[in-house]
Structures are given as C-alpha cells and as structure tokens.
Amino acid sequence: MDEQTNDIAHELALLHTLSGTEFIRQLKAISNRNEFHLLTGEDDIFTVGGETDNDFPFLLNAARKAVSHGYRVFILPNPKGTRTADFIFERKGVYKLFDLKTITGKASAGTRLKESIGQTNHVVLNMAVDYDPRLLAKNIQSYFESNQEAREVLILKGSKFLSVSRRFVEGADYIKMFIKRYLR
C-alpha cells in the first residue's frame, strides 16, 4: 500500500465519493485505523490527536453526551484542504458520520445547519443556549427541504438526545410533535 492510500486524510476524502455499503465499510475502516487511541480519562471516545485545537472542547462535550447514550465516538481529524465531518458514531455495529454544530446564538441553528451541507448527511446540534423550539423546528425543516441528502439531525440539549429524521419532518403535525419532544 503506498503512502497516499494509507493517509487518513485520503481515507476521509474518499467518503465523499462513496455511498451505501461502500460508505459504511469505509467508516468502519477509518475507525479501525491504528492512529486512533482511547482518549485518556474517557470511556469510548477515540481520537487521533488534536486535543489542543480550539474546537476540541466542543467536540469532547458532544462526544461525552453521545457516549452517555451508548455510542462509541471517534473524533476525526480536520485535514487541510478536505471538508470533513467531526465524528464517527458507532452503536451496536451501526456506523454514522456526523458533523457537529454547537449552537451558541439564539437564531443561529439554520445558518449552522446549512454550513454542514456537503460534509455529511447527519448533523449533531449541541444546544449551548435556550432556543425557541418552534424556530428550531422550522430551521430543521428548512434544512431537510434544502438538502435532499440529509438524513438525520441529532439534538443534544442537556442530557437529552433527540433524533430528528427526514421522515419525522415530513410527517403530519411535525412542528407540534417536535416542540412536544424537545420540551419533554
């Protein structure tokens, strides 16, 4: 195997060209790379370094929440020149690629969701502020409408873990049902 095909940045870039079982196989291969190590003092959080990066505390916060809900989390590197997601989440043999958007502004979720288009079809919104549930529901709905590849928005709010799928958004009474679940 030559150096380029063994490079993790190259492996991450390949994800943009794959779909279906090949995509999942690539996620598994990346998560099994020797560069990943268990983060000191953490359970089920793996990294390849980057603990001194400015956004690492946000990544670690979200990873800890995911672990508390049964996931193993692989924090991905951010190689120069490649748009990559932030995490691989694995639970019960199911692998998903997620991009993290930490929401710190009271009307920023829609903008942050749009930023993730082209990186992955699964987004984690880590809610660091109180956010109007109706506005958030509409932001998520707009995201699914503008991104036909989108599959899931995972919302982390305190200890709450709320998965919003395209099917849920397209269902009857979505806004009302979302608000109920979000405020529960």
Structure notes:
There is one protein chain. The chain is an alpha/beta fold and 184 residues long. It has an 8-stranded mixed beta sheet with strand order 1-2-3-4-5-6-7-8, with helices on both faces. The relative contact order is 0.11.
Features:
about 180 residues; alpha/beta; 8-stranded mixed beta sheet; 7 helices; about 25% strand; disordered N terminus
| Beta-strand percentage range | 15-25%
What is the overall shape? globular
Q: What is the helix fraction of residues, given as a range?
A: 25-40%
Q: Helix count?
A: 7
Low-confidence stretches: 1-5
Q: What letter string, H or E per element, gives the SSE order? A: HHEEHEEEHEHEEHH
Number of strands: 8
User: Strands of the largest sheet, in order across it?
Assistant: 1-2-3-4-5-6-7-8
* pLDDT averaged over residues: 92
Structural class: alpha/beta
What gyration radius follows from the Cα positions, in whole Å? Answer: 16 Å
Could you give a short account of the major beta sheet? Answer: 8 strands, mixed
N-to-C CA distance: 51 Å
